[in-house]
Amino acid sequence: MPEGHSVHRIARQFARNFVGRQVGASSPQGRFAEGAAVIDAREMMQAKAVGKQMFLEFDGDIWLRVHLGLYGAWDFAGEILVDPTIASANGRMGQTNQRGAVLDDTDPATPIFDAAGENSLNSIGAPRRTRVHVRMSEQTRGLEDEGDEWPPPIVGQVRLRLLTSVTCADLRGPTACALQTPDEMLATVAKLGPDPLVGDPAEGEERFVSAVRRKAVPIALLLMDQAVVSGIGNVYRAEMLYRARLEPHTPGRDVPEDVVRELWRDWVRLLAIGVETGQMMTMDDLSPEAYRAAMAHRDDRHWVYHRAGLPCRVCGTEIALEEIGARKLYWCPFCQR
After folding, report:
1. Which range of residues forms the domain containing residue 224?
2. Which of 38, 75, 248, 250 would suit a FRET pair with 90, their CA atoms being 20 to 30 Å apart?
3. pLDDT, tens digit, 9 for 90 and up, residues 274-319
4. CATH code, domain with 261
């Protein structure tokens, strides 16, 4: 399931490439045909993310709510303007073998190249219109070159296709894809916990502290409760608990207030890094060489996640793996006593 940084990055791509433009909408799969007909040929007014959910506003006070869930994905094709706030250490968004045309919005005819002479979202020399994939971890990967064919052919079960004259976005397998009125959208957002990138982070901190400190539920479950805090998933949950040296089964009300506050502030920091780089980087103070390795390989960027049976990077204790709330939890029994 995508975590909060991924959804914010996808929303920013929509803001750069669709907002302010008339958008064609269709449902090749047929399951969202009525909804697509309502928003077809309307202007997209804004795109925003709250935690793991994204909301696209169309003229006429119509909102499209999308929750990717475990299996959902967006495919982007065409000329893609990359938001300057989302990049990575090597100048690329996601993996290093993407294909697709990414243009500089100050000079739309000029692709952006990194120091190695490669486009910031694709390999150098990629054709103008190809498909790139934005999946659960917000990674991108190249798909089959489609040359000059426009719009791109439908591939697989596409719930919703959004199309401008130069950019296409295909939605597959979401948990939720529904139209909402403004009041319905606000009601959905009201049920979600605070998101550091939505509203005042200080107010969000107070909401988070209040929610955690009044519950007897283990902190490992509270961090995954989207009504307590928005956007944290399995990776960030394990890493944040380790960074706080916090025993995962501690009831929320027993976690000292200063520790709860530091959890929130750590989430503020980690979410910003994730949105900027596209990677769930949770290790600090790395050397330049170690940072490059961590950006390239997941195994080098986490303290405990996906390290069951391996020695803790700090104390050498074997990293434990258990199931809690139907999700895998990784933690160090010594550091997190």
Report:
1. 193-331
2. 75
3. 999 888 999 988 999 998 888 888 889 999 999 999 999 999 999 9
4. 1.10.8.50
Contacts of 106 (CB under 8 A, 6+ apart): none
70 part of a folded domain: yes
Q: Tell me the chain's radius of gyration from C-alpha atoms.
A: 21
| Residues 147, 129 contacting (CB under 8 angstroms) | yes
Q: What token pair was written down for 61?
A: 């006070």
What contacts 37, CB < 8 A, 6 or more positions away? 25
Which pair of structure tokens corresponds to residue 241? 């608990």
| pTM to 2 decimal places | 0.82
The DSSP code sequence of 259-325 is HHHHHHHHHHHHHHHHHHHSS-----S--HHHHHHHHH-GGGS-SSTT-TTSBPTTT-PBPEEEEET
